[in-house]
Structure prediction request, 298 residues.
Amino acid sequence: MTSVLELGYLGIEASDLPAWEHFAVEILGLQRAEGSHAGQLGLRIDDRAQRILITQGSADDMCYVGYDCGDDAGLEAIVERLRGAGNVVDACDAQTAASRGVRRLFATTDPRGSRIELYVDLARAATPFHSDLVSSGFFTANGGLGHTFFPAAHATMRPFYELLGFRLSDYIQQEIAPGMLMDAAFMHCNGRHHTVAFAAFPYPKKLHHLMLEVNNRIDVGLAYDRVLAARLPLESTMGMHPNDLMFSFYVKTPSGFAIEFGAEGRLIEDDASWEVQTYDRLSIWGHKPPAEVVAGLS
Ligand code: FE
Prediction:
């Protein structure tokens, strides 16, 4: 079945662009995109011209997410499949496509009301990616920008994402408080263990976190030190999930949702032999609320 190939880009509406630029460039080690201008900040993590597009606004949330459909035939097949299942899918005008840096663009809405964009040909930058802070570089080859975690029931979301070609990776079900089950599902569209994940929990934004992956753990540790030195709001300490084995921490962005910053996540090499499992905890170790960990240490 034709599938989207990767999470290509993410759009964010943010009230404080200078804070975002400092956070993304000086703390996390992303690169400011050439086309950035007043009211809009583009960010690079690889050879693409932009992967994160931040526009000035009051939402402080994700406003769209773009998936690569590979070529025109793939794009048309996925659009047709979505329409066949009753989804409204609109062709976007040339100006909107140009603002994303893509040649052709369609847009629809997922069951939680998030704008989902489908494209072909995300522009490459004229210059190589460069970061003074992340020397190993970001991992995007055949894996795209990273993964997103949406606070929504997976039973509601999965059928839509299956239409995009996503396959189930696994589940995590953990009782996080008496009588409160965190029931998460993880889905992939390429070798990255998951590109999208869902769990229903009360959260005021469409996006709980975006995961960015660097190529080694040293760069995760160095970013962790920069976050701590800048006294930025850490959402959880360093830790590791049982399913993707990502070595990561979570920091709150200037918009309130989080970035998971990690390395060395597990890959799904072969779909045919992959077995879906259910894990009973969110993390093997770590990923604790920082106040719980550091209170009384010094
Ligand atoms: Fe994650």
User: Anything to note?
Assistant: Residues 72-84 form the longest helix (13 residues). The chain has a mean pLDDT of 96. The pocket of fe (iii) ion is lined by residues 147, 149, 209, 211, 260 (CB under 6 Å). The chain has two domains: 6-120, 147-297.
